[in-house]
Specification:
Layout (H helix, E strand, L loop, with lengths): L2 H10 L10 H9 L8 E6 L4 H14 L4 E4 L11 E3 L2 E2 L2 H20 L7 H15 L4 E5 L16 E4 L7 H4 L3 H8 L9 E3 L3 H13 L4 E3 L4 E9 L2 E8 L8 E3 L4 H17 L8 H10 L7 E3 L4 E5 L4 H14 L5 E5 L7 H8 L5 E4 L10 H6 L5 E4 L3 H12 L4 E5 L2 H19 L2
Parallel strand pairs: 1-5, 1-6, 2-5, 6-7, 7-8, 13-17, 14-15, 14-17, 15-16
Antiparallel strand pairs: 2-3, 3-4, 9-10, 10-11, 12-13
């Protein structure tokens, strides 16, 4: 099966939709001889920051000389981004092979009368097999949706991480923060340490589930803290303090913004807790791993005139964090947004969190069948001038023209938008440089 054939096969599974539950993935993995049991796992969920935290944890494990895999979703431009070992994405050839291999067991399941697995379940099983076949020692697994009934919740981790909890996926995980926290807390396993930055009612739920499972709980602001202590070059310095642990120097981090300070602290606390049983993790490997960690599409800055920032802020909490970071790092810049949002997101509150008087906005349609009509998005913005872009590329070019050399363009609102915009911006920069 070629890469293109694998994509066609996965697309054909879209008809099975999002179907939460573990019975299908458990059966599929059992047929594949449970590859997920052949390495150790860090399991990560949360409303925002779980991807960034996954990237930092993966980089710190790799810096400790540990063969480390990462499974994340969604991808920005290529499915191979979802399966990474020691910083290297799976090749197109290998992707086609692991999807073909997994599909044979899917066929066996269906022939035996089992319900057909979903696209995400097939991808998850393929990734777990790929990591085992490659002989990884640790895999950092990011939850796809929620936690309790997510396909990734078949794993038995060394440590569980819940970054934070706010309203999201209310159609599937509940209409309140407490109900959503119950889904996030579903990744907690008996006797396995948990690190979280959850607060208030979400924290209360997580505490209760941790207690039921006799799981040691490390809470941000109680057992560990993170503070922004300055900048060095293009990195921010984060000071992490944790009770009963050795002292760490200020840590240089590529991922910018106050929200990344908390994500950094969570990732570091996970490493400190894991160090109790993994002697290769030291203060030096933590420091070196964070220096190397990258997470494209999250407050990613493209230098030039104007500056361009892209960020996959796709819910109100993410939009608020993006706005705070823009105001902190570029307080004197007039911002021109290229904004594209999915229809099933909280469009009004995303716009309210991001846009201010004096800004400029071009709304565009992300490359997704779930995209909100740009006109509908524009109707939610009343505090500044808004235009509707004919396409993402046209919207970016219009924003660049409106921003001028001294302005700032920010592309945001959906990872689907970022996935399309990122290569457009790279191509634009290369053209300007004559490459």
């Amino acid at each position: 099966m070629t890469y293109e054939q694998a994509l066609e096969y996965l697309a054909s599974l879209g008809k099975f939709g999002i179907n939460l539950g573990l019975s299908r993935i458990e059966k599929l993995l059992a047929l594949m001889q449970n590859p997920e049991r052949r390495y150790k796992i860090v399991h990560i969920t949360g409303t925002n920051g779980k991807g960034s935290t996954t990237a930092m944890v993966g980089a710190m494990l790799e810096a400790a000389g540990i063969k480390t895999a990462m499974y994340t979703s969604p991808h920005l431009t290529d499915y191979t981004e979802r399966m990474v070992i020691n910083g290297e994405q799976i090749s197109h050839k290998a992707f086609g092979e692991v999807i073909r291999y997994t599909s044979t067991f899917v066929s066996d399941m269906v022939k035996a009368g089992w319900e057909h697995p979903t696209e995400f379940e097939v991808l998850t099983a393929a990734a777990l097999y790929y990591f085992a076949a490659a002989g990884v020692e640790y895999a950092v697994i990011e939850v796809g949706l929620g936690g309790l009934l997510d396909s990734t919740n078949v794993v038995s981790p060394e440590i569980a991480v819940i970054t934070n909890v706010s309203l999201e996926h209310t159609d599937r995980c509940g209409s309140t923060v407490a109900e959503i926290a119950q889904h996030k807390a579903g990744i907690i396993k008996r006797g396995i340490p948990v690190v979280t930055a959850a607060k208030a009612e979400a924290l209360a739920v997580i505490k209760a589930v941790a207690n039921q499972n006799q799981a040691k709980l490390y809470i941000a602001g109680v057992d560990f803290t993170g503070e922004l202590s300055g900048f060095i070059g293009k990195q921010q310095l984060v000071t992490v303090q944790a009770k009963h642990r050795y002292q760490l120097p200020p840590l240089a981090v590529n991922l910018l913004g106050k929200h990344q300070v908390e994500n950094t602290a969570v990732a570091v606390m996970a490493m400190l807790a894991l160090a109790d049983k993994e002697p290769r993790i030291t203060s030096d490997t933590i420091e070196n791993g964070l220096k190397a960690a990258q997470w494209p599409g999250r407050f990613e800055i493209f230098p030039g005139k104007p500056l361009i920032v892209i960020d996959g802020a796709h819910n109100p909490a993410g939009a608020q964090a993006l706005r705070l970071t823009l105001d902190e790092i570029f307080p004197d810049k007039i911002i021109t947004f290229v904004l594209g949002i999915l229809a099933d997101k909280d469009v009004a509150n995303i716009c309210r969190a991001l846009v201010r008087q004096g800004d400029k906005v071009i709304t565009v349609e992300p490359m997704s069948d779930r995209a909100a009509d740009p006109k509908r998005v524009a109707e939610q913005i009343t505090v500044c001038q808004v235009e509707i872009g004919d396409s993402i590329e046209a919207g970016i070019e219009r924003a660049v023209a409106k921003a001028g050399e001294d302005g700032l363009v920010c592309v945001a609102g959906s990872l689907y938008l970022i996935g399309t915009a990122r290569p457009i911006i790279f191509s634009r920069q290369n053209n300007l440089l004559g490459i």
